[in-house]
Amino acid sequence: MNEKAIRQLRTKFILLSMLGLSLTMLVIGSLIFLTNMSLTHRQINKALDYLIEHDGDFPEESDMSELAPEPGHRYNFIRFFGEFANQYSQIQSLLYGSTRCFALLYDEEGNVTELKTHNMPDFGAEEASSFAALALAHPGRTRSSGNYYYRAGKTSEGLSIVVFLDAAAQIDNLFRLMYSALSLITLGILITLIFVRILSERAIRPEIENAELQKRFITNASHELKTPLAVIKANAEMQELLSGENEWTQSTLRQVDRLNGLVQNLVMITRAQEKEEAFREDLDATKILSETTETFRPVAESEGKHLESSIPEGLSFHATDSELRQLASLLLDNAIKYCDENGTISVTASRKGKVLTFSVSNHYADGKNVDYNRFFERFYREDSSHNVDQGGYGIGLSIARSLVERYDGSIRAEWKEGIIRFVCMLKE
Question: What is the pTM of this model?
Answer without folding.
Answer: 0.52
